[in-house]
Structure formats: C-alpha cells, structure tokens
Amino acid sequence: MTPRVEAGLRQADNDLAMAGYAVDGGFHAQACYHASQEAEKALKAILISLDSEPRQTHALEALVSSLAAAGVPTEPLTGLRLNALSRMNSATRYPDGDQAPSDLFDRVDADMAIATAKNVLAFVHSLMP
Questions:
Q1: Rounded Cα distance, 72 and 10, in Å
Q2: What is the DSSP string of 5-36?
Q3: Distance between CA 118 and CA 13 in Å, rounded?
Q4: pTM, whole model, 2 decimals?
Q5: pLDDT (tens digit, 9 = 90+) per residue, 33-78?
Q6: Helical H runs in 25-81?
C-alpha cells in the first residue's frame, strides 16, 4: 500500500470518527457531511491503489462505476444508499432558501449516512492487502 493510499484511508477513518462525534453532539447535518466524505475518500483510496487516478467528484456511484470498470467486484455496495450520501455532500453545508442544513437533517438521516459510510469503508478495507 502506498503512502498516498494509507493517507487517504487514515483520513477516511478520521472523517468517520468525526461523524460519530457530530451525531453524538446532535449535529446531524455535520455527521451526514463527514460520513459522505469518509465514503468518498475510501473509494478514491482504493482507486488510487489500483493505479487509477479518481475523478474529481463527490458522486459515489460514479466512483463505484470506476471501480467496476477496473474489474473490482462492487456487488457488496449494491443496495447502499450511495446517491443519498452523495447529495449530503452539498445539502449538509449550504442553506436551501430559508432553511439551514441543521433544519433539514435529523438523527435518522445521520444514522443512515454513518451506516452507509461504515459499509463502504468495510468494503474498501476488505480489498486492501
């Protein structure tokens, strides 16, 4: 594993830990954001480990498609709410009209985001040597 891949996975782990702190403190939008960041960084790390420079995107499904194109069996990611998690990257940070993200996300959203992120991270770790 290269230092760049290791750094990406360390940051993914760090983002997931931050999501846990945020949800425990009642900061649900921030928990969703950090969960989406964890999944993105983990998927990009596995692409980098395959000598494939990941696209600059927050779209998790696009990153999964890149993995599939590289020959990685991505079936374990099927059924995860990756599109919802991708949308959380922006929706959790910027107001929508007169509603702040903190008005729009609750514990159910945060728990789903963290569970999805944990599944992505477990998948990525299962592929690493």
A1: 22
A2: HHHHHHHHHHHHHHHHHHHHTT-HHHHHHHHH
A3: 9
A4: 0.92
A5: 999 999 999 999 999 999 888 878 889 999 999 999 999 999 999 9
A6: 28-49, 60-69
